[in-house]
Design brief:
The protein is 24% helix and 24% strand. It has three helices and nine strands; from the N terminus they run βββααβαβββββ. It has helices spanning 37-45, 52-65, 88-98, and strands at 3-6, 20-23, 34-35, 71-74, 101-104, 108-110, 113-116, 125-128, 134-138. A hairpin with an 8-residue loop joins β7 (113-116) and β8. α1 (37-45) crosses α2 and α2 packs parallel to α3.
């Protein structure tokens, strides 16, 4: 279901309307990404620690609601806190159904997988792209 494409072959907006676009860092020169790190962290700190996993998706949606449609977001690292035990890509995809936005992935893309963190660390995650309705855009400027 998921796709990896080179930035030079990026389809028009109509073709991508329903899919979550995950950009690798190179896209930053084409769009002005907005950081969600601080508002996410502040809202999560306001929750009791044992409720943060349950409220994470709602908090993420609340932060997105403050941003314009079509925004490119970055700095989503707080979502990967190993204490939350959530599928970050599922949260990102569910939010995409509510609001049109794209993400700059804070990790790397290798062998059909999105990777966050480093192996051996508690926040290390891998996601098989074909299991998600996403398009990963790689290559291009600033490579």
């Amino acid at each position: 279901m998921g796709t990896i494409i080179e930035i030079s072959r990026l389809p028009d907006d109509a073709a991508m309307a329903s899919r979550l676009l995950i950009y690798m860092k190179a896209i930053q020169k084409m769009h002005e990404p907005r950081s969600v790190s601080k508002p996410l962290a502040e809202a999560l700190l306001a929750c009791k620690p044992n409720r943060r996993s349950m409220k994470l998706e709602q908090i993420f949606n609340n932060v997105l609601d403050t941003l314009p449609d079509g925004v490119v977001i970055k700095d989503i690292d707080v979502l990967f806190n190993p204490d939350y035990k959530v599928d970050v890509l599922k949260i990102l995809m569910a939010s995409r159904k509510r609001k049109r936005y794209s993400v700059i992935w804070p990790g790397r893309c290798e062998d059909g997988k999105l990777i966050y963190g480093e192996e051996g660390f508690p926040d290390y995650k891998t996601y098989n792209i074909e299991n998600y309705d996403i398009t990963c855009v790689i290559g291009g400027y600033g490579k």
